[in-house]
């Protein structure tokens, strides 16, 4: 397969359909594309006037990861879609890429937790190692974000300082290799764009997530300028314990926040596993991850060029059992 296409959004952002985290739900993705009016031509889903932007996280967790990744890649290479990196693509690449200066090691250590994250992907590609290696080379060339004057797309959080740190939407090979050091500036910037803001729980507290992991931090919103308590910042399926949620936010915590102002262009993200009926999370922000791989909804937003997110423009299908 050829390299990924141009990373700039087309001039007519109103012709874009933005689709949330797929996570290997290939059959559900096909149904959503057909609902949006895309049809297979020469084996690839296309639309006569519109193109898709995928917010990342095509791989991991789901039942048909190979099919989903091939479908999306073919759309990108045919010019009917764009794809940005999600945290799962970043993780998969780093997990599978040898560390250039530490023989026998990888850019991401093979700990039990890191292995569990990518397990389904590696299992489904076990008999297709050449295809997986080719996909990894392609993934390495994908952008971390897309932007035009009319809209922006990033997997988890739009942070101007992180974007400035990286300088370009695509990572160079030295930047990929730098991700082996999670404390370096490059790794911090990539994590911010693909995983969002993680804030520490107060007083060293811990909580158990729905996936059974012990958490000492929580995913936070990046648009609440008037937040006063911890619960005002939470943006994840697992609520904070009541006694923690009611804690006031101190100035040190406020200094760690990123605020996406309401006068900025519409922003589309995935990543956060929302529930319920899809709707804007802020007047100019839409999250399109509604837990497809957990039998939730695979969600799209049919952009029309408006400066505000419209509830009527969300479209979705429920995930096949």
UniProtKB/TrEMBL annotation:
Classification via Pfam families: Metallophos (PF00149)
SUPFAM superfamilies to which the protein is assigned, alphabetical: Metallo-dependent phosphatases (SSF56300)
Domain of life the protein comes from: Bacteria
Cleavable signal peptide: none
Gene Ontology molecular-function annotations: phosphatase activity
GO cellular component terms, A-Z: cytoplasm
UniProt organism field: Gilvimarinus xylanilyticus
Entries under InterPro entries matching the protein: Ap4A_hydrolase, Calcineurin-like_PHP, Metallo-depent_PP-like
Stated name of the protein: Metallophosphoesterase
Span of domain Calcineurin-like phosphoesterase: 18-100
